[in-house]
Amino acid sequence: MRKFRKLMSTVLAVSMVIPMLVGCGSSGGGATPAATTAQAEVSSEAQAETPEAAAAQNPVAGKKVAYVMLLPSATIFQMWKDSCQDLCDSLGVDFDFFFCDGDFNKWQDTIRTCASAGYDGLLLSHGNQDGSYVFLKEITEQYPDLKIVTFDTQFYTDGQYQKLPGVTQMFQQDKSLVTVLLDQMIEKYGEGVRLIKVWRGPNFNSPFDRREVGWAEYEAAGKIKTVGEIQPLQDSVDSANTVTAAYLQGVKREDVDGVIAYYDMYGQGVYNAIAENDNFNGKNGEALPMASVDIDPVDVTNMQMRSDIWTAAGTTDWTMNGEIGMRILMLELAGEYDKIYDPASKEAGVDVVEVPGTAIKASELKAESTVENLGEIAGETYGNIDYLSEAEWMPKDLIHK
């Protein structure tokens, strides 16, 4: 009986093995070498679609970010916002934006709300120099996983400039925004050109102080001569107009070659004051030329109408600026700080990024020129795709194909 049971066990074992062998080696429905290869490829593709592999291909997909601007909405800031939106859409990132009407408390409240709501990253613009450092330091300490990029925001306290670890600061290269305008004046009048400067004085805000660096360098080198300063009492066109109109009453046209405004809102007031004064608007002798930093649709119109008065604007491409800032935030979210690129120094792995300025010349504007299409007449520093930070998952031409 024992032998019989052993024999039956052997038979059963063999009978179970035979179908397995037939299934592996038969040409009638089993896997051929080609089929085995195809199965391997499918398996490989399946592995590529795992969450880990997908994250490697696009580490920011599904993240949530916001652009928070201190100032009211304007054409150039809409251009910034739209390019942020386009980049986020291309990367599968949720994007929101907030304009805070020049109210620093509203700017802080918006940032605090976004941080507590679980946003992964914030692109913050035009923070107050006096309060931004202390406020954002608290935010980064309370929300250590929140990634932050700032634009036109200096960190200043205790009498000196500060840094916030992990926070990248982005600026227009403010010095060059002025020097490209000074170069235009020097080209027309030669070195030693006599200029009036329009700003609010030192320590009013960091962009003006940074622009003053370019002016001071040119003056120290003897390239320009400051013959006067105009300081609006408020950040408004009307204030700039009133102060400039009064100033011109005590100036002779032959004693000055041109005017440079550190802000285009001031420039609009200066333009109006010149246009309204027959001794400077071209009716009695040559018109007094002026130029300004920044640009908006009013500036373009004025340059088109009176290119002999408003001769140039120093600016950067605000569409490109938005993309540059958002790309930096994407790299922070991915932990790839080493890829953050500064076009001014041409170095990567930096925590300060500056975008070089371009002079938009009134003489080169076309009838159809607008703030949105200035790239058609501007130089190579305007809208330069090589200014963009990039990664394998975020190539430079991602939204420029």
From TrEMBL:
<feature type="signal peptide">
    <location>
        <begin position="1"/>
        <end position="24"/>
    </location>
</feature>
<dbReference type="Pfam" id="PF13407">
    <property type="entry name" value="Peripla_BP_4"/>
</dbReference>
<dbReference type="InterPro" id="IPR050555">
    <property type="entry name" value="Bact_Solute-Bind_Prot2"/>
</dbReference>
<protein>
    <recommendedName>
        <fullName>Periplasmic binding protein domain-containing protein</fullName>
    </recommendedName>
</protein>
<dbReference type="InterPro" id="IPR025997">
    <property type="entry name" value="SBP_2_dom"/>
</dbReference>
<keyword id="KW-0732">Signal</keyword>
<dbReference type="GO" id="GO:0030288">
    <property type="term" value="C:outer membrane-bounded periplasmic space"/>
</dbReference>
<feature type="domain" description="Periplasmic binding protein">
    <location>
        <begin position="70"/>
        <end position="336"/>
    </location>
</feature>
<comment type="similarity">
    <text>Belongs to the bacterial solute-binding protein 2 family.</text>
</comment>
<dbReference type="InterPro" id="IPR028082">
    <property type="entry name" value="Peripla_BP_I"/>
</dbReference>
<dbReference type="GO" id="GO:0030246">
    <property type="term" value="F:carbohydrate binding"/>
</dbReference>
